[in-house]
Amino acid sequence: MKFPVSWLRDFVAIECSITDLVDRLTMAGLEVDSVDYVGEKLSGIITGRIDSIEKHPDADKLVITSIFDGKNHHQIVTGASNITVGDIVPVSLPGATLANGMTIKESKLRGIPSNGMLCSEEECGVAEKSNGIWILPKDTALGIDFIEFACLNDVVLDISILPNRGDCQSMLGLAREIAAITNQSFRLPAIKLTESDIPHDYSVSLQTPVCPLYTGRYITALKNGTSPIWMLRRLQLCGIRPISIIVDITNYVLLETGHPLHAFDDALCNEKSVIVNDVDKETTIKTLDDIDRILHPGMAMISLANTPVAVAGVMGGKSTEVSETTTDIFLEAAYFDPISIRRTAQALGLRTESSIRFEKGVPADTVDYASQRAAELFTNLAGGKISKHVITQKQADHSCFKQLRLEFSLDKINSFLGSSFSQQDIEAVLLPLGFIFEGKDIIVPRWRSHDIKEWTCISEEIARSIGFDAIPSTLPTSLPLQDTNDPLVEITTKIQDFLVSNGFNEITTYPMISEKECELLGLGAVNDANQLANPISDQLSVMRSSLLPSMLPIISYHTTRQLPNQALFEIGKTFHNDHEITALGICMSGVLNLEAYTPSLRDQESKLFDYLTHTTQRLLSFLGVKITLKKDTDASHSWKHPQLSYTLLADTMCLGTITHIHPEILDFYTIKDPVVFLELSLNGLLSCLPTMATYQAFSRFPSTRRDVALCIPDTIEFADIMTVINKYKHKSVVKTGVFDVFESESLAPFKRSIGIYFIYQSKTETLSDEGVNRNHQRLCDRLTESLPIQIR
Fold first, then answer.
1. Per-residue pLDDT tens digits for 37-84
2. What domains are defined for the chain?
3. ∠ CA(86), CA(88), CA(93), 5° rounding?
4. Comparing C-alpha atoms, which of 735, 734, 728 is closest to residue 763?
5. Residue 593: per-residue pLDDT
6. Residue 445 phi, psi dihedral angles, 5° rounding
7. Structure pTM?
8. Cis amide leading into 788 (omega within 30)
9. Which residues lie across from 573 on neighbouring strands?
């Protein structure tokens, strides 16, 4: 929100510099986003009246004017075409400086002396462009300092108001805060209101707890027109577009007090019975922005009898809109429940200056103050007459009228902050903020009722007001918490270290993908994949159920920039119907190492599927988990290659898959090289980890090796062979592995030969050849008995 410093000075004396004020506000929790020095280059502009206009003798488009400033006449030559005799305009005499930094000097235009310049809104820094000279109201005094009169020179603070500080969404609220942190007095202007015995037929009925307080004032004999310059400028500096004096006053009071108001045109109110209730069925209303909006059950609305005229706390209706011909109004000032207003504004996609304030909370006890302030301005600026028959409806038992009382303990606050403040120190901080000490209790000011809820909030007020740097560093007096490491964090750290040390690069991506990607990759129906109700964009509208659609765009991005060789991994969340999974995803593309020493090594490095499989086995072995690979028969995911896809099994538990990406999917992402993808569930992996790693001494006795070559058909997978080996191998077998794979038509009826080695070793003795041969032969017999294979 934007705050002109000149407006704040109406309520508090600001004696410190702007830089110091910005620092104090920021340290007090009111972060100043920017400081705009408006019109800092302006000087010397006054007001003057055009007493005569004569044609220039040597220029068709120039005229010679005589400007009277109340004391002297000045001859000024101008090319403006929108001026007439009697107009009062801004005048910059020689020595004055315009908004663009140009200094006015005496000059001659086509031989005629010109002693100054008539100013437009653009030259005064009010508008980026203007069509002519700024014509001022007829009652503007002559010869006055126009820069001060029109608020052309000001400092505007743009402050981020946090959701819990709704009390600072107004000039009065921020001025009260500035007074507290700068040790100045806060001035709440007294209202001088003259009311008349003007009868009216309005009545108010509250039929929902959303609105526990409603005040209505009848104002007549208004002269709608343009607001005075000072009000126009203050509204503009705050980012509000001036409309007319009636609308501008309601907006002005909103900015000044923080209370939204609404004016109904009395001539358009066919019924005078104002009803505030909840919508019981879908209702259509045309709001002030000329859009038909559908109100759903549970939303609060304001009606005249049975006709909706406003969305309560959000926006008024078009049917009772104030116009240029409006002379009589019914002025609404009310309190609405913050939660209800926020839900309504979000559901309608309609965030207004009114809804923003109601949803952050406004104090209920100053609603009538805002109404009176507006009535005073209507009287002074628009000639209005105020009816003394004010309608006030109130649900007295509502919580918004109860003043919160908290138990105050000096020792508890000092213990919490690690400070040694005295009672006087704390009172010096809290009393200016509106807190009241009463016995052992402290009474929270009503304007902080939406923020201060517990005694810890009081501690926060003390700390931010005194300054966090004023609180000395102390050791906590309580015992430290004995926390345990999160197993998921530990395993994540181990995986990251392992993969980075093996040449992989970690990436982090958004957990959202597009609906098109979700359908393309066969990740399930969009509803099943957690479609977002309010996505950032169409490309980020669905919560991913796999890491693949997040990683393939990264591969594609680098591939199109001459970086085809990639080894990436990500550890992130995947989202499913009723749960989340922390998953590890690895994507490899291109060639792992083009600088290998020999052609055979380079060829080996290019086999990414084998490399990734081996790396995964080493990673899981490092974590203490043994896995086997089994042919993946799940055809539901279109991104899997039909022949090169395997599941990772720990016993019978499926931990994930490793697969070549289907070429059609790669074409969609414009990736030319093959891509290998691994996805592993870390949640499932945790359940497979050994409970505790124990040290095992290495054997002091020699090992011996035996090899076997197996001829196998296509129907047998290597995982089936390893299942038999693990089941029947002798306890002295400490390691097995493949040392050769050979394929040939001469092996018919088999297709390939696999060479497997076995390392035998004992921890207690040296093994004999006879014992090793006997155990090895027994294992070979089991293999041929259990599987349709042949030993070469």
1. 988 888 899 999 999 988 888 888 899 999 998 888 999 999 888 899
2. 2-33+157-181 (3.30.56.10), 43-152 (2.40.50.140), 195-401 (3.50.40.10), 405-465 (3.30.56.10), 487-688 (3.30.930.10), 704-791 (3.30.70.380)
3. 120
4. 734
5. 60
6. -65, 150
7. 0.66
8. no
9. 582
